[in-house]
Design goal:
By secondary structure, this protein is of the alpha/beta class. The protein is 34% helix and 26% strand. It is globular. The protein binds zinc ion (ZN).
């Protein structure tokens, strides 16, 4: 590679690093991304604040924490994305295509993805073997409302997420295809995303700053007593959760396309209760009404988006306890005893999906499948196939190499 070009690439990659902090001894690797949507700057501000304080106070640490900027071109223009959503390019199919490409695509986000991917590969390549790899992705949202966390529904991600005192949503991560989290769950034990508040609200950066301090401690990189003002960060998050259930499970997603002309009724906020039959919006076919008694999540008030809203139901401690226990005992094997549910092996060894035929059966079995973490749904002919995020980790350096790498 040309030396001048090499140094320029190096320069660009360094700019992508918002902060880095390393301990003296081996330990976990915490990777943070901020601004993968360019209009969501609060995470960038939060990361810069936290790493500036780490540099100033130099608290003892093990392992490392690194924060990366997501869509740098989008951030520069305060735009969600330029040509395509950078947080929808990471599905297994898209990644196969990405890794086999021999030259960069022409869209702005192709270059963003290539750089971000290389930064992540470099970090994971240096991660200490035998220690946790944790990924935290920071976002903000368009409508006013309470911040919340969402995690892949694996047991290790759940355990990590529950140490963060924000409302936790299960099933949202799996409902959206091609997020960076979908890629990272194959290479990290824990994948967590945080929606830190409304994009323009200065309180969102404060919330995400607190999220980062708690994540640094939960990951085991820092000890709570070494973090400046740790208790106040925990209190801030607890206060935000005070009026909401600790855990909410997604029970319904209302997908839309631009051609549907969907318009949300005004005034809905995250976690607002809705009654079955309540008018939530309208599209070209007529009124859209709530399908369940539930709480509404992520109501769509921006022009770009494929999800009109989600409906969720609170999950109490008993539900979580039983779900964790039975999953540890591989109780999902019992699902094979139900008529109409077929267990099929995935391409990855040791991973399975469930294939369900027939609408009535699908409705009856969906809750049960979610209980065992099977939340990712895809259509295959007349059947639905339910899969879940893998619990194991894979060594990224051996799993992937790109044809065009220099
Ligand atoms: Zn976002």
């Amino acid at each position: 590679m040309d030396v001048r070009l090499q140094s320029r690439t190096q320069q660009r990659r360094e700019d992508r690093v918002l902060g880095r902090y390393e301990g003296d001894s081996p330990g976990p690797t915490l990777i943070i991304t901020a601004g993968i949507h360019g209009n969501e700057r609060a995470g960038v501000v939060a990361a810069q604040r936290v790493f500036a304080q780490l540099g100033e106070h130099s608290p003892p640490a093990v392992g490392r924490a690194i924060a990366l900027a997501g869509n740098r071109a989008g951030l520069q223009r305060n735009q969600r994305f330029i040509d395509q959503d950078l947080n929808r390019l990471w599905s297994p199919t898209a990644m196969r295509e990405f890794l086999s490409r021999t030259r960069e695509g022409d869209r702005v986000e192709d270059a963003e993805q290539a750089e971000l991917y290389q930064s992540i590969v470099d970090i994971l390549g240096k991660a200490d073997p035998g220690f946790d790899r944790i990924f935290v992705d920071m976002h903000t949202f368009s409508a006013p409302g309470t911040p919340f966390a969402l995690c892949s529904d694996t047991l290790t991600s759940r355990a990590f997420a529950r140490r963060l005192p924000l409302p936790l949503i299960l099933g949202l991560e799996e409902a959206i295809d091609g997020t960076l989290g979908e890629f990272m769950i194959r290479h990290c034990n824990v994948v967590l995303a945080v929606e830190g508040g409304q994009s323009e609200d200065p309180a969102s950066a404060d919330c995400l700053e607190s999220v980062l301090w708690v994540s640094l401690v939960s990951a085991g990189v820092l000890r709570a007593k070494d973090c400046p003002g740790y208790e106040s960060h925990v209190r801030r998050l607890r206060e935000l959760r005070r009026h909401h259930p600790k855990v909410t499970g997604i029970i319904y997603r209302h997908p839309v396309q631009a051609s549907d002309g969907y318009v949300m009724e005004p005034g809905y906020r995250n976690f607002q209760p809705v009654k079955v039959g309540e008018k939530l919006g309208r599209d070209r076919r007529g009124d859209v009404r709530a399908q369940h008694d539930a709480v509404i999540l992520m109501p769509l008030y921006q022009s770009l988006g494929n999800d009109a809203y989600f409906l969720g139901a609170p999950r109490n401690g008993a539900w979580l306890w039983w779900s964790t226990l039975l999953r540890r005992l591989h109780g999902d094997y019992l699902l094979t005893l139900l008529p109409g549910l077929e267990r099929v092996a995935n391409a990855e060894p040791g991973e399975y999906s469930f294939r369900v035929e027939g609408r009535a059966l699908r409705l009856a079995s969906r809750g049960l499948l979610q209980f065992f973490g099977y939340r990712k749904v895809r259509r295959e002919g007349g059947a639905l196939v339910f899969s879940r995020r893998p619990e194991r980790t894979v060594d990224i350096s051996s799993a992937h190499s790109r044809g065009r790498r220099d």
